[in-house]
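User: I've been trying to design a sequence by hand for this structure and keep getting stuck. Would you show me what you'd pick, starting by listing the structure so we're on the same page?

Assistant: Good idea, let's start from the same input. This is the structure you sent:
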């Protein structure tokens, strides 16, 4: 079976936004969600599909790599993420995997796949807390990390700006706006 990214994103909206934070999006926010969700799903489908060990399904080629690089329990510095991703990309291309020849384009795909994954994890985490399968303390530890990863990616790409607004609304302080006058 294919990994159902659309259902995972819906779980974020239902279990995290509504369930954990008690938020109901207004019409504008629903439009932001629809645009951001569609951008993520397009990126998700645009990658070559491979069997995934952790999900017992088929999903994007970079899914498991980004799962390792952006694990909320094991943060990496960005230069380490890039180094490992470049090594993986070079090896995968040598092995014949049909990945983008431009690493920058591939990195964007990886980040967007990671964003989808972090939103899915946030939804699953909140659902597990609501069902009593994970402690509130563990949720309080992991949820801010997942949302911070979501902000890290969504602030880099104009197409994902609507998601920045929605996540920022859940947990203030993740985005700092500033400017300088020269």
């Amino acid at each position: 079976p294919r990994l159902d990214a659309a259902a995972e994103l819906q779980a974020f909206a239902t279990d995290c936004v509504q369930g954990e934070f008690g938020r109901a999006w207004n019409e504008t926010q629903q439009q932001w969600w629809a645009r951001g969700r569609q951008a993520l799903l397009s990126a998700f489908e645009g990658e070559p599909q491979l069997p995934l060990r952790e999900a017992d399904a088929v999903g994007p080629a970079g899914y498991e790599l980004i799962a390792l690089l952006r694990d909320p329990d094991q943060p990496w510095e960005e230069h380490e993420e890039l180094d490992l991703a470049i090594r993986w990309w070079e090896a995968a291309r040598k092995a014949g995997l049909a990945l983008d020849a431009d690493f920058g384009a591939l990195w964007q795909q990886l980040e967007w796949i990671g964003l989808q994954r972090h939103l899915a994890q946030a939804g699953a985490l909140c659902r597990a807390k609501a069902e009593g399968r994970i402690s509130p303390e563990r949720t309080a530890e992991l949820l801010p990390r997942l949302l911070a990863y979501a902000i890290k990616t969504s602030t880099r790409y104009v197409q994902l700006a609507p998601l920045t607004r929605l996540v920022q609304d859940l947990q203030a302080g993740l985005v700092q706006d500033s400017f300088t006058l020269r």
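That's my pick for every position. To get oriented when you compare it with your attempt: The chain has seven helices and two strands. The longest helix spans residues 103-130.
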